[in-house]
Amino acid sequence: MILVTGGTGYIGRHVVTRLLERGHHVRLLLPEQRTHKLPWADPPEIVTGSILDEEALFKAVTGVHVVIHLENAFWWGRRRDLERVELAGTRQLITAARAARVGRIITVSQLGASPSTAYTLLRVKGQMEDTIKASGLAYTILRSGLVFGEDDAFINHIALGMTANPLFFLMPGRGEIVLHPIYIDDLVNALVASLETVDTVDTIVEIGGAEYITLSDLLRTIMRVSGRQRMVVSVPPYMLRWLTAVFERVLPRSLMTSQWLDILATNRTARLGTAFQYFGIHPRRLEDTLMTYLPKRRNALELLRYTFRRRPRVL
């Protein structure tokens, strides 16, 4: 039995779908509000409760041999949400897993994660990694590059931002930051393959896609593929953080968040070839993949729907 936390999130629902396709027995831990309108025709076993609910956690981990821990507050959470979900939630999950004699925990972190960094998202991810490494459980941590795909909250938000402003796009800094995007299916394949890959036990694996790309080149690639040409205006990152703080207070949801800016604060790359070395995966190229879905998106409607949708409730 495999327990997946955060099974209805962006990465989580792809992982659950892949596990079900391969015939694995899957259990999800989901809050009550997420148990409606599940994306699977034949949904897996569900335990209702949050990662901060000790009783629900113990019920969820009973009889489980692997936990794939994907519950997070990555894109929407403020600092207190990140600390509560990523740190307190992970500690409680580990406590329950050890009591139930779970064999292994697999999770996704971020390239650049470190408990000593000044950037909140990367610091919290680094602290979460340290918590798992000190847990006494066998673990696999995939430090991932920027994950992109049809419903991602980064590249699609850039396209939405270009729809919102038909004249220009605000770029933090000079766009020299180097990113290492990885397609969602490639990351999911790596997560599922790690279940049977001995070399990944008690290991942190840094993984990215087929190529490096600067932020400036990424913006121009999105404009070229989507057909939305905008003037790119370089803005000091601290000014964008101020603007983001204002937007987050005025709007139910902001396209650009503080975590978004944390990702763009420093170079975030892995060694090329890691995906093939560990998992036998040939990652897909960014532009080739964007061409399959980005030109077809109805960004104006999605912009309105996203901006005025309620933020997720804190667990």
Topology:
Layout: E1 2-5, H1 10-21, E2 26-30, E3 45-48, H2 54-61, E4 66-69, H3 79-99, E5 104-110, H4 120-133, E6 138-144, E7 147-148, H5 155-164, E8 168-172, E9 178-179, E10 182-183, H6 184-194, E11 203-207, E12 213-214, H7 215-226, E13 231-235, H8 237-250, H9 258-263, H10 274-279, H11 286-290, H12 299-307
Parallel strand pairs: 1-2, 1-4, 2-3, 4-5, 5-6, 6-11, 7-10, 8-13
Antiparallel strand pairs: 9-12
Helix pairs in contact: 1-6, 2-3, 3-4, 5-7, 5-12
Describe this structure in words.
The chain is of the alpha/beta class. The chain has one domain: Rossmann fold, CATH 3.40.50. Helix content is 41%, strand content 17%. It has twelve helices and 13 strands. It has helices at residues 10-21, 54-61, 79-99, 120-133, 155-164, 184-194, 215-226, 237-250, 258-263, 274-279, 286-290, 299-307; strands at 2-5, 26-30, 45-48, 66-69, 104-110, 138-144, 147-148, 168-172, 178-179, 182-183, 203-207, 213-214, 231-235. The strands form four sheets. Strands 3-2-1-4-5-6-11 form a seven-stranded parallel beta sheet, with helices on both faces. Strands 7-10 form a two-stranded parallel ribbon. Helix 3 runs parallel beside helix 4 (120-133) and helix 5 packs across helix 12 (299-307). The radius of gyration is 19 Å and the shape is globular.
